[in-house]
Amino acid sequence: MSSPAYEKSVFINCPFDEDYEPLLHSIVLCLAAHGFHACCALSSLPGDGARIDRIWATLSGCRYSIHDLSRYTGEGPGNLSRFNMPLELGLAMALSFERRSSPKPHDWHAMVGGEAYAYQRFISDLAGFDLGRHASSVDSVIAETCGWLRETQDAQPPYPVPAAIAAYYPEFRAELKKRKQFRLGRLAWAEILDAAATGIRHIE
User: Residue 158: is the preceding peptide bond cis (ω within 30°)?
Assistant: First the structure.
């Protein structure tokens, strides 16, 4: 299988737990509907090296990245917050600075759920940036992702209507559930991408 074009590749930085999974799938579907290829930390195999090396290799092969910083509060018995997302955003920002005058630049977009400007307190160095917002719902993530994609240099009209993506989303999730059952509970990243690529023909 040939590698996706650099200018059409988007790195997704988000939680990979069961609670966030519906939102991750909505982002993947939005990217496919706009003609982009989704990549993330799940794209590479564990045998390809240390996790941070694999993340950097995948990220640096993408023209764009989208980052969800919503998991900033403590969770679980240890009341720990998630630092993987800010770390990967930092890598994306470093890549953007490094390639500022490069023929292969990198642009990133960060978003957060919940309180509008909470990020100015837990990651104050981003206070000068206008982060995207969502309400931790599928529809709000679709709306935010579509709005950002339409502003990217490599997006090409006609753009899919966010409401049409949201309308197809339940069918997309049902297809993923069916594929997961066929795979005895283990759904590979490639399967998710294939389901999105196959399903976008139903989005009008």
Answer: yes
